[in-house]
Amino acid sequence: MTPEQITLVKTSFEKVAPIADKAAALFYDRLFEIEPSVKPLFKEDIEVQGRKLMAAIGAAVKGLDNLDSIVPFLQKLGRGHVKYGVKDEHYDVVGAALLWTLEQGLGDDFTDEVKEAWTTAYTLIATTMKDAANAA
């Protein structure tokens, strides 16, 4: 990722963080709408899961300017998702739901550059998680 992309992801996430609970609810609603088959993978209370999601995204975003610092976290997360039944193809629908959620939360601030930065960040995160899951 370029330094500019990292800045775009960080500053846009700062705008979403105050509405984290609403953003998480939007995310899961959208995820289950576009891929209903993943709903049974979520056994925990969805509000609790939403807080975990936003915390994990926040940790990943925080570490984007020092990737070595977040790779072990992302690898552990990827390996942990295996036990829930997460498959490689699920990462694509999660990415689509995430971008849609960001667009809803950011409105006009969700520019093409912000979308590209988030797409790059999510691809990096998802690839790291998938690689660790597949190696487990």
Write the layout of secondary structure elements.
Elements: H1 3-16, H2 20-34, H3 46-62, H4 67-82, H5 88-106, H6 112-135
Helix pairs in contact: 1-6, 2-3, 2-5, 4-6, 5-6
Overall description:
The chain is mostly helical and 136 residues long. It has one domain (3-135): Globins (Globin-like). Helix content is 77%, strand content 0%. It has six helices and no strands. Helix 2 (20-34) crosses helix 5. The longest helix is centred in the last third of the chain and has 24 residues, at 112-135. The relative contact order is 0.18. The mean pLDDT is 95.
Cα shape: globular
Helix content: over 70%
Low-confidence spans: none
Radius of gyration: 14 Å
Number of strands: 0
Structural class: mainly alpha
Termini separation comes to 26 Å
At CATH level 2, the architecture is Orthogonal Bundle
CATH topology: Globin-like
* CATH domain class: Mainly Alpha
Following the backbone from N to C, one meets helices and strands in this order, namely HHHHHH
Beta-strand content estimate: under 5%
Can you tell me the number of structural domains?
A: 1
Average pLDDT over all residues: 95
The total of helices stands at: 6
CATH superfamily: Globins
The description of the largest β-sheet is:
none
